[in-house]
């Protein structure tokens, strides 16, 4: 009884999907029920999504920080970080780039960016104090204290405390896959201010070609057009990165940039 639909058309929130999945994976039913009850508890106690997800991260990080950012083993944690790093390197990431990493987690990729960039050129932000403490352990373990990265706790994605036109690369891996649309909208409304001229913002998301849906309040599935249109509404050009699709990663990646000013037009 395999699922007849390809992964990008599955609706993981539908009853049919859940029943089929439970029948195929009886060993996972208990864990799912416990996630459901945690979801209910955190929803009741949280004033908004950020507070909710901060509680999820607290609970997951207490068990295992590497699993909390989505890696089942240390080997996977290393490989997923490497994949993100190699991709940006191939796209020209240079030591003098200034990088903002949104949802930096425990620096799965961040420690490689910090190592590559010039001192002080990495800025990681996250909503979870627990995972930021784990990020400090990663920094120490990798011997990167002298690179003076910034790690900051945030309560929203308005980015008000960051300088204008500063970051040449903004990166959010596996963050919008855990975010409702209003959080993504807030980010896209504000990220343009901190992007340096010619800079870009790469983010991954869980792509569906069917109905948009979410599983609990933890995993969100979007159609590409929803996110590209949202980015365009905030004045960006947005494109799905085909070379990322070829990599062994379940999520898709969109790059947003400011459109080039037409010839002879002064930049605004
Ligand atoms: C799956 S982890 C990925 C971490 C890191 N990007 C990586 O690839 O290892 C998602 C991270 O995003 C953070 N996060 C979730 N929503 C966020 C938001 N609205 N603003 C900033 N960080 C957020 C979580 O706390 C968590 O550390």
TrEMBL record:
Annotated family: Belongs to the CFA/CMAS family.
Originating species: Actinomadura algeriensis
Name of the protein in its database record: Ubiquinone/menaquinone biosynthesis C-methylase UbiE
A Pfam family annotated for this UniProt entry: Methyltransf_12
This protein's UniProt keywords: Lipid metabolism, Methyltransferase, S-adenosyl-L-methionine, Transferase, Ubiquinone
Domain called Methyltransferase type: residue spans: 100-201
Signal peptide as annotated in the record: none
Database matches in PANTHER family: CYCLOPROPANE-FATTY-ACYL-PHOSPHOLIPID SYNTHASE
CDD domains named among the record's database cross-references: AdoMet_MTases
Superkingdom field: Bacteria
